[in-house]
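seq/struct pair 1
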Amino acid sequence: MSDTPDKPVTLRALRPQQEHFARLIARGWTQIAAYRKAYGKEKQSMRNAANGAYLVAKNKGVQRLIAQLRAASEVKTILTINDRLRLLAESAQARAKTPSAHAARAKVIEVYNKTAGDHAPERHEHTVTTPPGAPFEIAPARPVSARAKIAALVAAKKARGDEDQFE
């Protein structure tokens, strides 16, 4: 096995326990906890689990897989404003069945409105640079409701056929 970091790890090269260990480490588990979970050794002593975790973590294939999973996770966490609005819109449309779910849904709608700019002040003052007494044209922007924005996001998602879930 070569030590090139750009070469993708073939999961067949790793045993299932090693792959599971790498995935747990990439999610933020400690080496000992990941080792115990991946190898089914929850009752193993701390010393033996630490030794086993060290040996698995030392494997170059496991190290490469952890690095790839972490890199993929970092890419997923960078969301555009449209991605955030889409996620918030989906959450806002979910049915609320309990009082706490209603409160959470209201908070999602509030965050969506702030993100979309719906909490901007109604009154805007502008400096006019036309000569005094000369007419100037004002074209007021038509406000768009949050409900209309959410409907537009949902329609765009359906048009794209984008049915995947965000993780």
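seq/struct pair 2
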Amino acid sequence: MSTIDLNLDPTKKVNITFTKGYTFDVYLRLTQKDTDPKVPYDLSGYSFELKCKYSSYDETAAWEFTGNEITANSNGEIIIRKTATDTNLINPATYVYELRATSLSGDSTRIMAGKMIVKDAVND
């Protein structure tokens, strides 16, 4: 499982590469900026969406992470997961993505964005 430590900086671009047909696991830990020691964000009650598009100009997602594929907790931890069976259905390409968190009051915040690069599995 990959771990990415992020201070909540929505301008930070994080590129992610994975191989089609393999389990996708990304573990994020969000901490408040400018605190020492680092204080995690309490993500209880937030909902998340991660949409992947061919271009930032596209209105609809080519694919996305939904439901239980994104979980979070009060320690600032977000786990993003897609099974090998599900990633096998994704076309190899370079996508753009955005991960957003929505609070119970409806405020939406961009957590991170960048390129999602899906590679084809090498067959012998």
